[in-house]
Amino acid sequence: MTENRTVTNRVWLALLIVVLCCTLLSGYGCSSQAMSPGSSIQQGGDKDPIFTSCSCNDLCNDPVGIDPGQDKDVGCCICVIDSTNATNATVTISNAYPGYECRINFTIQNTASLDVNITSVNITAPPAIKISVGPSNLVGTTLGPGAKTDGFIDVHVNDSATQSTTYTFTVKIDGD
After folding, report:
1. Structural Rg of the chain based on CA atoms
2. Tell me, what's the pLDDT at 4?
3. Is residue 110 within 8 Å of 165, Cβ to Cβ?
4. Which segment, 3-12, 73-82, 148-157, is predicted with the most confidence on average?
5. Which CATH number fits the domain 47-175, given the four candidates 2.40.160, 1.25.10, 2.60.40, 1.20.1640?
6. Residues 70, 32 contacting (CB under 8 angstroms)
7. What are the CA-CA distances from residue 105 to residues 26, 30, 154, 155 (Å)?
8. How far apart are CA 133 and CA 61, in angstroms?
9. Model confidence over 71-89: pLDDT tens digits?
10. Alpha helices in 29-96 (DSSP H)
């Protein structure tokens, strides 16, 4: 009788160990990414690259500058990275006039722990503004974790623009 009780206790102990191991291993399998102390798992929509810098070649309040390609200093450009969502930047063209041109230079960085492919550059420019984005291979570029790349936006104010008008538009970089 004592021998049966010892066998039964060993069986229950073995089953308890198997259940405990299965529980621990199933929790480990929930994550496909390795964890280290102080790290977190990044999932979902955090794969968009962020702006780390943006600037215009025609600064506002520049005492010695002239508008690019012109002989007067009338218009100006400001580029600001959104402080709450660095995947967005806002560009403001002040005192614009037909024919005004400027270039916005920017740097974007992959802050994800995996490679990010730049899938689009979305710009909400008004019809009076013609936009071109470069380099031509920016969309489709793959950035490794922490990698950066530079780009630019050429702005041309069309003939349909009204003189002394301020135009504002946003730029968003998307990735997957």
Report:
1. 28
2. 59
3. no
4. 148-157
5. 2.60.40
6. no
7. 48, 42, 9, 11
8. 26
9. 566 788 899 999 999 999 9
10. none
